[in-house]
């Protein structure tokens, strides 16, 4: 991940969590007391966010010594020791919650993503995320999807054209919207059109859209769309994408499956952090 993004996010998190003084640790813990913190998994899952955890502790104690027993993207089980950090006791206690808040969410996304990839069980079909992310947490959520084995859709509005129903309505049709975008874009930006019917699909194909998103279509309708498209545009399926339906969708002949659930409906992975005095 981008170190500057990590550091900026952590600094804001520390400001939110501690405006001027930690009235517990700063009052109760002797200054310069050294301690060891041990992080342990309380659930099975995929590890994600080790670099973020490192920076969280090092921001408050640059001399802290961190040892990881697992690697990024590695599967762990309940009770497995993940890492230890040796450093200033006050710093460890102040960094603990921030480090866990980031890592538990990142591990949760990576773990859920891994289960979706395994359910899809088709390396020829890309599973991707969406922009349905937590405000200001998008870099961490999309990175976690990648660590879980899936791919990222566009990061933000500047990455690709996504023509949806409201754009089509305002522009007067799919052809009009695509033509207008094509005239104004550079050669590196692709145009994607969201369609809700086979008639709209045909319009998008005729307009030479690069990618066509099949929104909330039944499996049978998706198969018809694949046949109509005949590999002219990249076909993406979105809407009503559940883990139980992934394998079936992957066999229809589409190219991409996008799921907002990866970044808005993930369970947080339970991880503990306990202090051990030297």
Task: Describe the overall structure.
With 278 residues, this protein is an alpha/beta fold. The chain folds into two domains: 3-110 and 267-276, Aldehyde Oxidoreductase, domain 3; 118-264, Alpha-Beta Barrel (TIM Barrel). It contains eleven helices and twelve strands. The protein has helices spanning 3-17, 25-28, 50-60, 89-120, 138-147, 165-171, 174-184, 198-206, 219-229, 246-250, 261-264, and strands spanning 34-41, 45-46, 65-68, 75-76, 81-88, 126-128, 161-163, 191-195, 211-215, 234-238, 256-258, 271-277. β9 (211-215), α9 (219-229) and β10 (234-238) form a beta-alpha-beta unit. The mean pLDDT is 97.
> Which stretches of 5+ consecutive residues score pLDDT under 50?
none
Q: Any idea of the CATH topology of the largest domain?
A: TIM Barrel
Helix content: 40-55%
Derived structural class: alpha/beta
Number of helices: 11
Physical arrangement of strands within the biggest beta sheet = 6-11-10-9-8-7
Order of helices and strands: HHEEHEEEHEHEHHEHEHEHEHE
Q: Which whole number gives the mean pLDDT?
A: 97
CATH architecture of the largest domain: Alpha-Beta Barrel
- The CATH superfamily of the largest domain is Aldolase class I
């Amino acid at each position: 991940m981008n170190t500057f993004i990590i550091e900026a996010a952590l600094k804001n998190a520390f400001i939110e969590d501690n405006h001027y003084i930690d009235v517990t640790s700063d009052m109760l813990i002797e200054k310069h007391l050294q301690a060891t913190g041990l992080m342990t998994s309380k659930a099975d899952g995929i590890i994600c966010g080790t670099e973020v955890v490192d920076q969280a502790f090092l921001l408050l104690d640059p001399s802290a010594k961190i040892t990881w027993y697992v690697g990024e993207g590695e599967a762990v089980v309940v009770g497995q020791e993940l890492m230890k950090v040796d450093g200033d006791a006050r710093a460890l206690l102040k960094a603990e919650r921030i480090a866990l808040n980031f890592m538990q969410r990142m591990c949760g996304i990576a773990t859920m993503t891994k289960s979706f990839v395994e359910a899809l069980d088709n390396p020829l079909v890309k599973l991707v995320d969406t922009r349905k992310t937590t405000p200001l947490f998008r870099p961490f959520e999309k990175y976690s999807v990648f660590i879980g084995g899936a791919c990222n859709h566009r990061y933000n509005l500047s990455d690709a054209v996504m023509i949806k129903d409201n754009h089509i309505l305002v522009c007067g049709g799919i052809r009009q919207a695509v033509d207008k975008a094509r005239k104004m874009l550079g050669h590196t930006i692709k145009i994607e059109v969201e369609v809700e019917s086979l008639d709209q699909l045909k319009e998008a194909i005729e307009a030479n859209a690069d990618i066509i998103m099949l929104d909330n279509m039944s499996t049978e309708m998706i198969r018809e769309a694949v046949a109509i498209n005949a590999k002219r545009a990249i076909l993406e399926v979105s809407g009503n994408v559940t883990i139980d339906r992934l394998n079936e969708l992957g066999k229809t002949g589409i190219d991409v499956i996008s799921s907002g659930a990866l970044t808005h409906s993930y369970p947080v992975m339970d991880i503990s952090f306990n202090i051990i005095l030297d």
